[in-house]
Design brief:
Layout (H helix, E strand, L loop, with lengths): L3 H9 L5 H14 L3 H16 L5 H13 L4 H44 L5 H27 L3 H17 L4 H15 L17 H8 L9 H15 L7 H12 L5 H13 L7 H40 L3 H29 L3 H17 L5 H23 L2
């Protein structure tokens, strides 16, 4: 019989190897369609529900950190989950494995784009894929909601954050933080504010400084300008990777004039039809501006802030995340983040479901995934939707032509 110390060490040992987690991140980065909303849902389904490598509390802590700190949501969550049992090495390898597949894909598409002068077929593909993605993320949002949201207070927070996201068409980090503080104060109020203030004392001062420090590109060389601009993009954007789009548009089109409006729209389309994080659109933009070097610098600059923020804050979440005050704060923020995800489904749906065919594609996707559960891989559904888009789009486009 093992003694208490041996039993505790046995329980603490992970049920998977670092290599297994890296391979999972590589696979998700290669075939994980649907953007950040779907990707965080896949991680919960695969790592928490199916394989049980990550506990519900560890996943919630990672979601909270990814939501309240600047940076792309899915990438930050992947980095944190790599950190949970394998510390800095796990965070580094998992983060790299998650991002690299989609980076190589957008670089290849950037090469083809520059060679052939445009992506005329992209609109047809995105016509089907965009609607299909709405069905995928809607199902992911539903599963997260029924799993996490319990009780009148949490349902009220969920409804409010959903409505705010729909109205503002962006995720409001102050609303999400406020939800965490509200649940903390209602369910686990501090007995002595001053003596116990450290319980919620996440030392965010260096993180806030990092997020607020924007260094203008000035007259530096092109690669330095790319690095500084995309580092700002990675530092200022919270939550969904789609939130980076307005920031990028203002910089690369309006301020620096690196791309035209059409080129920028094509870059966003490339990000939406490739697996992995939507933020990887920065690789495509960087390639159009300065080739492979530009793509590499843009991607590195965008993901470096979120990596540093995650590994700096992760030790605190691992050490103190199970305290009741922290747990209630995490619960409130997680519910608010789930509401924001549900709101994002509506926002994206209004832009992707534009007619009867796209509505049918979304509904059929949702019905197929619901009926077949885990037996029907999402990439197959996305590929089918792309083929349907290629077939249907010319017909609908012809009907609109004079």
């Amino acid at each position: 019989m093992p003694n208490a110390i041996e039993l505790q060490e046995l329980i603490a040992q992970p049920r998977y190897s670092l290599w297994q987690m890296v391979l999972y991140a590589l696979k998700l980065g290669s075939i994980g369609f649907g953007g950040p909303i779907a990707l965080v849902g896949y991680m919960h389904r695969d790592l928490v529900e199916d394989r049980k490598w990550i506990s519900e509390s560890e996943y919630s802590e990672g979601m909270t950190l990814a939501q309240v700190a600047p940076g792309p949501l899915a990438a930050q969550l992947a980095i944190y989950l790599g950190y949970v049992h394998y510390s800095l090495l796990g965070a580094s390898l998992v983060g790299i494995a998650f991002v690299l597949p989609s980076f190589f894909m957008v670089v290849a598409l950037g090469w083809a784009y520059m060679l052939y002068g445009g992506l005329s077929w992209m609109q047809a593909v995105f016509y089907g894929v965009g609607a299909c993605v709405i069905g995928i993320i809607a199902l992911s949002a539903y599963k997260l909601t029924v799993k996490i949201v319990k009780g009148p207070l949490l349902w009220s927070i969920f409804v409010v954050t959903t409505a705010v996201t729909v109205i503002r068409e962006t995720e409001e980090v102050l609303v999400i933080l406020g939800a965490g503080i509200l649940v903390w104060l209602v369910k686990a109020p501090p007995k002595n504010w001053f003596n116990h203030s450290k319980m919620m004392g996440i030392n965010l001062s260096p993180l806030i400084l990092l997020a607020q420090t924007g260094v203008p590109a000035g007259d530096a060389n092109l690669l330095l300008s790319i690095f500084l601009f995309f580092a700002q993009a990675g530092s200022f954007v919270f939550g969904s990777g789609l939130a980076i789009v307005p920031f990028l548009y203002g910089g690369v089109v309006k301020n620096y004039h690196w791309l035209t409006d059409k080129q920028f729209v094509d870059a966003v389309a490339v990000a939406m039809i490739t697996p992995g994080p939507v933020v990887i659109t920065v690789g495509f933009v960087g390639y159009l501006v300065a080739g492979l070097a530009g793509a590499t610098v843009a991607a590195l600059a965008t993901f470096l802030p979120c990596y540093l923020i995650t590994v700096l804050a992760a030790p605190y979440f691992k050490k103190h995340g199970k305290q009741r005050g922290i747990a209630e704060f995490v619960n409130g923020v997680t519910v608010a983040a789930t509401g924001a995800i549900a709101g994002a489904v509506i926002v994206l749906g209004r832009k992707s479901i534009i007619d009867i065919p796209t509505a049918l594609i979304a509904l059929v996707t949702l019905a197929l995934l619901w009926y077949f559960k885990k037996k029907l891989p999402e990439p197959i559904v996305v590929l089918a939707a792309a083929l349907v888009g290629l077939a249907i789009y010319p017909l609908t486009h012809a009907q609109l032509a004079p």
